[in-house]
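To close the section, here is one more complete example, presented without commentary so you can practise reading it yourself. The ligand is WT7.
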Amino acid sequence: MNNYSINSLEQYFKIYRKSIRKPKKFWGEIAENNFTWYQKWDKVVEFDMQKAEFEWYKNAKLNITKNCIDRHLANKGDKTAIIFEPNNPEEPSKYITYNELYKEVSALSNVLRDQGVKKGDRVCIYLPMIPELAYGMLACARIGAIHSVVFAGFSSNALSTRINDSECKLVITSDGGYRGAKTINLKGIVDEALTKSPSVERVLVVKRTDAEIDMQSGRDLWLQPLIDESETTSKAEIIDAEDPLFILYTSGSTGKPKGMVHTTAGYMVFTAYTFKNVFNYNTDDVFWCTADIGWVTGHSYTIYGPLLNGATTLMFEGTPSYPTYSRFWEVIQKHKVNQFYTAPTAIRSLAKERIEFVQNFKLDTLKVIGSVGEPINEEAWHWYNDHVGNKKCPLVDTWWQTETGGIVISAIPFVTPTKPTYASLPFPGIKPVLMDELRNEIEVNQKIGNLCIEYPWPGIARTIWRDHQRYIDTYFTKFPGKYFSGDGALRDEVGYYRITGRVDDVIIVSGHNLGTAPIEDAINEHQAVAESAVVGFPHDIKGNALYGFVVLKEVGLWRDRNNLIKEINQLISDQIGPIAKLAKIQFVTGLPKTRSGKIMRRILRKIAEGEKSEFGDITTLVNPEIVEEISRESL
Ligand code: WT7
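Output:
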């Protein structure tokens, strides 16, 4: 990135002011100076916040893979683009150079073409954290197909729902995957999902575990033989700035998952510029983001942001606890990692283990450490700062969302003084505002409000796949003219933002976004269940855990409660995935409801947090007596 690098606090304020006063000039210059285009734009941005319409770099033509790969070949062809660190530490790491990446992506893009995938078609990628996942995404981008990566921890039902929503034509998966001591039968899950997903014509299978799997003839093909026969060069399609690059599903507070759509040019500019500045990436640094690529963090900061900067990015297949709690630190030492980006839940789970697990490793290559996914509590912040950053690496607490495409509030390392639990200052181009329930802007400090953003930025999602109305309703209606994040936040005297958590019915468990509605739907499928409500409660390691209040149909009939609990959790696991299982299930005779029939979750949340008496105003309930009963029997 050749311009607008942020190297001092003074410069940050200067750049920030400019980005807000003259956003078109600002984002225009960044796009102008750092990328290759087939054709430049007519307008930097055109937008309508009411209709939620955004066009960045209007009419520009490009291919993001030219920017991620081709343009680095002349000077950096032999540089490592991706370091692959396998689950099993005994298995050798792989170092994939930019030249090799070019060949792999080209070959796979040719395979996709041969299989009839065309520009605009959707391809579902359901893979473990192996290099083919990166190749798959980039191969889609090369030919203008839209990738929809589904986290390989999701169940067959969740996979099928996502495939159906975007009508994917082809699935890339593997025979299986390794995660810690477990082997996961991915192909079996895909087979099951496809019994309910008629749009899929072809499944390409990567060999990873050598597990015995069924190959359905006429539908399933092993990938490697096709790659071996393919040309290793591939024409990069000409893509319009606003053509979709990918769909990524995120949970909503109600209804089915939302297919957030990101388009090409704006996402490219935003992830490249944020990556460079938020992580202070310098040539030859090794960057490691531990997030699974099934989440947006992996899309933006394992793949696109680093590759756009010609960086070396590390992909890790395993888990922080396998074979020991030292694994992260071992990998940092082994690959001399310079920037390390992880989630508070991982930090908390490692901080509870013996300190020797981290102390026995050389972490002095680290320059910047980062946190993302949920608020980082003070204790975890200090542990991370002291034992991993050795009190010398700036800790950047980065706030953003699937919807924002990239980091929107964060400290800039070596520039912004950090303050535990504060994400700190907005990134250039981002104008946060806090709104109260009456839709007034909160001007005073230290007051919690609804966190909104006033002006669009290039990385903002463009729509929900084939449901633009839902996009408008979810993000642009409650506070007209603004983007509403669904998070609460406060601002201190200096202007630092502290994110206080979700203000809607999304619960973040171990950094995973979970909507309550689909979990309740899964519970209600049990024949014994009349209705249910799920809320979050604070958990030492996961941040939040799930508490379900369940009303049974005919109470007397269901004596074996333990079995019922198991069956309910099994249903959740089947419908969504094991991450959504309930930590506590309380059987109740009714749920607190308002006259209009709405469950008053506020009260259930308090009960789940252990509150016994202070429930605020409960006079609007039709059944106030139930509150006492539920709280008396709470777990
Ligand atoms: C939600 C978005 C953005 C990548 C990972 C999650 C929470 C994210 C922080 C942070 C406090 C955070 C918010 C947000 N969140 N980062 N640094 N401090 N909360 O993406 O799955 O779309 O989740 O994660 O609640 O709304 P996502």
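Once you have examined the tokens, check your reading against these statements. The chain has a mean pLDDT of 95. The chain has 20 helices and 30 strands.
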